[in-house]
Amino acid sequence: MEKLQNYIDGALVAPSKGTYLDNYNPSTGKVYSLIPDSDEWDVKLAVEAANRAFPAWADKKKDERADLIMHLAHLLEEKHDEFAKAESIDNGKPLWLSRSVDIPRAVSNLEFFATASLHFASESHNMDGHAINYTLRDPIGVVGCISPWNLPLYLFTWKIAPALAAGNCVVAKPSEITPMTAYMLSKLCVEIGFPKGVFNIVHGLGPKVGSAIVSHPDTKAISFTGGTKTGAEIARVAAPMFKKLSLELGGKNPVMIFADCDWDKMMKRTIDSSFTNQGEICLCGSRIMVERSVYEKFKKEFAEKTNALKVGPPLIDDSRLGAIVSKQHYEKILSYIDLAEEEGGKILCGGKAVKLGGEEKDGWYIEPTVIEGLPYNCRTNMEEIFGPVVTIMPFDTEEEALKYANATEYGLTAMLWTENLTRAHTIAAKLRSGIVWINCWLLRDLRTPFGGTKNSGVGREGGWEALRFFTEPKNVCIKL
Ligand code: NAD
User: Fold this and answer.
1) 85-103 confidence digits (pLDDT tens)
2) Which atom, in ligand 1's list, is nearest to the CA of 461?
3) Measured in angstroms, how far is the CA atom of residue 186 from the centroid of ligand 1?
4) Which residues are catalytic?
5) Could you tell me the fold of the domain covering 2-249+456-479?
6) Where in the chain is the domain with CATH 3.40.309.10?
7) How many whole angstroms from its chain centre is CA 22?
8) Residue 272's CB: how many other CB atoms inside 10 A?
9) Cα–chain-centroid distance for residue 91?
10) Helix (H, G, I), strand (E, B) or coil at 282
11) This prediction's pTM
């Protein structure tokens, strides 16, 4: 069985204790590879390597750094099919999705930040001709990047690319649930001769490896994407050490549908925003609010269309939903469907596990599920489920819709469907979330600020925000 390796100081190495964790294929429920069960010793070696590499990497001309990152992007693009298949097997997501979204976006992340770093500029403040200030933006040093399992290589590269392009050395940890494509990326780094120690990947468990990265005194900034509870734990450890922190956390995103929307566009994209990647995208809409005059029409059509979505093996072309990423997560989602029923919800479609036969008989599959009849503030409507489960509810006025939308402790994204321009702008301004999509979903311009408010996170990623996060500003004031 394939044993994955850490990538430390330019080499692929076994974990220091020689122990491994099982890596499951969610479509079959079977172990198919082994992951290094690394610990704080491996993290220490990685941080030391990164520290040694830092002065030379930070001193390199930015176009030399960009060239190396672009080289990695090109190689990844050449191996697109191999990576897409690996991502799909490791995560359970349909192959069409990793082909069309995950791997192309990982390539774009590398390309975007490699080139963005060439155009990054800093400020100058002239004091009425008496003095001039200019801001230097230096790389921070060694930084930690920790990513989740839902968009494995996509989110991993979203962090490491700006960190490296800005001149930092990186110690990164992909999720232990989906480590494969980060491992494959480390092999590409070896192939192109990425300078030793600049980029290190330590595999293993969050509370062991992740927490060792966060608590190591020499990691000066931590960029984390994952659950809100984990984010709180990271902040608890890192804040007293005065580390820079970027936290991209959970969501419970509202979708607000008004009777005047472009119906067919709304319907198609709301199916996507509910069930793409089995609903395991932090940006999925999970609470759908519909203006009462069209509620019954919406309910019927939405349930019919949801029922028609095929759940199947990830590598089969017509599977619209694949497998849930892990047994633990599968059980969590099913427990939330039970909770919804206990809270008085009516299941309009789905609601059960899907049992496939043959090779996939022990895989973790769940029907796309639509629930109605729940109060806006019950647990099902307040807590993140992160699966193919949505609730629908009617509203009468804009104020009521806004009250429901803003009711949770999360504030990542919100979707709004209306052709009324004034209403669109007015509601967008009042929504308490970091991102608002009007008449669209997941339309991403990598230059825009990305992140959440409230318990969905602290700080923003994307564009200059990421390059600012990964650099330390220094003001120089000259009296003229
Ligand atoms: P998670 O918090 O369990 O794990 C995320 C990463 O943190 C993993 O690599 C894990 O090993 C590591 N980790 C766990 N405990 C740690 C600790 N004590 N110290 C340091 N690292 C630790 O999250 P998950 O289950 O992998 O991902 C799902 C969550 O991620 C959902 O809540 C989802 O909304 C969120 N998410 C948010 C965004 C966003 O951009 N806001 C994007 C994707 C996913």
Assistant:
1) 999 999 999 999 999 999 9
2) 40
3) 21
4) 248, 282
5) Aldehyde Dehydrogenase; Chain A, domain 1 (3.40.605)
6) 253-446
7) 23
8) 16
9) 13
10) coil
11) 0.98
